[in-house]
């Protein structure tokens, strides 16, 4: 249970709010780079700010305020130039930093362009990496955009999936340090969706939470597991400050504003040995819907089940009314770490938890994962098809609902087999099999 004040500290992300200022000091994936193959400008709302994201004629990305400072026209209707974006109302032009670069009529009247030099709107750095556009909205200089090792894995097919959720970011992120939900939200709920009398999977018996350089980890032992189980020896990573890394995919929860969150899922499907070498030409991105054609919330796929849990807690969940237990030790640990970090920021500390400042340290940054070796070295198809973590990915896109046919077809070509197009995935999710032991 938290006080109302502490709940606000965790959840308010607008400009000037402590958590908003804190999270702005990290890079966040905000869009698919391939979105800009067909268009040059799009609106985006992040941390309570209305912005436009654009790709100019030189191929550079920019993220600037959405309203033109002249007479408030919407820059989403602007057109890109060699450098930056021009307002389509009276032609004022803005560069990536938000600096005004051209005020056509004003500069005819005053060739020294004093007014233009004094005109600047907000502009935030954007970088492209792993098929996604990453934004940094904090004070400059910015720390390094982390070069996580999994973003550099070879011989695989990556895809980036975006969805806007009607709830606060922190309840999504609490899920990254919540192992027990796997059993109930994924395994057992999938079983019950198919058969109301279906039996439950083995329950959790032990949990362990630890802090490491780039976040927290959780480890689990379930009924029937032995202590050499990869989920106990390695576990999973709650990646600081707002991500969850599971070896074959990573999820980020990026605040849109206090009541909405951009879910970003980056999946990497390792191709079987027989398909090597495989080089992906372009990483596709797509938008995952939350509701089906009947207006019902989708609950068939893994992250859609998570979404249901998160938005089900309310727009901004009321943490003055909760009853935490032993299963929530990781949640408590994470909240405490955020409070410590907010204090550190208030004291003016530049090095915040898990930030990388030294470029020499930012190469292929190691993150533990339960299937790291398999992702790097690959395995023959026959072996991969029955692998307890990677096998299901060869057979279906069960992580999130709504994969477009064009992406599925490219993926099928890459891995060399057809998807089964199942509608339920009872056996796909980690923990569904009693016989599961180690990764090798
Ligand atoms: S409103 Fe943008 S240039 Fe006038
Ligand atoms: Fe989940």
UniProtKB/TrEMBL annotation:
Coiled coil: none annotated. GO terms for molecular function: 2 iron, 2 sulfur cluster binding; dioxygenase activity; metal ion binding. It comes from the Bacteria. Keywords: 2Fe-2S, Dioxygenase, Iron, Iron-sulfur, Metal-binding, Oxidoreductase. Residues 27-135 form the Rieske domain. InterPro entries: Cholesterol_7-desaturase (IPR050584), LigXa_C (IPR045623), Rieske_2Fe-2S (IPR017941), Rieske_2Fe-2S_sf (IPR036922). The keyword Hydrolase does not apply. PANTHER family: BLR4922 PROTEIN, IRON-SULFUR DOMAIN CONTAINING PROTEIN. This is Aromatic ring-hydroxylating dioxygenase subunit alpha.
